[in-house]
Known about the structure:
Elements: E1 6-10, H1 15-23, E2 28-32, H2 43-50, E3 57-62, H3 67-77, E4 81-84, H4 90-95, E5 100-103, H5 112-122, E6 128-131, H6 141-153, E7 156-158, H7 167-173, E8 178-182, H8 195-203
Parallel strand pairs: 1-2, 1-8, 2-3, 3-4, 4-5, 5-6, 6-7, 7-8
Amino acid sequence: xxxxxxxxxxxxxxxxxxxxxxxMGADYLTFRLDPSLPGAVTPELVQELxxxxxxxxxxxxxxxxxxxxxSQLAQQCGLHAVLLHGFRRAExxxxxxxxxxxxxxxxxxxxxxxxxxxxxxMAPHVSGFVFSELPPQPLSDMQxxxxxxxxxxxxxxxxxxxxxxxLRQLLTDVAPNGxxxxxxxxxxPGVRDFSEMEAVFEEIEVD
Length: 207
């Protein structure tokens, strides 16, 4: 399935999600490998699930785990990248053995120059910025314009809820690096409701 943009699916914890998202054309599957994160999974589960999928990049999510342990898990699980819950010191980032993306929050009252400064400080150390949490209200035209400027300068991933007028319009107006979706739990082994995720994939499918 060909998509209009790249897709990250976070929080994979079951085979149904892994196979479905890979089959729908997602580029990245993330696994919460840090025991401090809600819904954390074991390295053994990541190894098992990854053996059933092909053509996707495996990403580990980490909160407070030291860089050395992150790199060890990256090697053990065959990760292609990591997604960090917050930026770390440059020295710590340099210890990572795979590219790192970072989760960032939308701060509605942050001055534009402070937003730019934040990106500038992190950009040399990360491969992308992931906005997975939605803004507190639909973005104004000015905010959308600023977001478009940022997307032209940095690799930015947006949750579908950033779209005010449909995902295709968001991809046209903002042109982010991609979209970030959230995985879920199986209803029972082998059974999963994909209706919400399917709607997103169908909307961004190449005609």
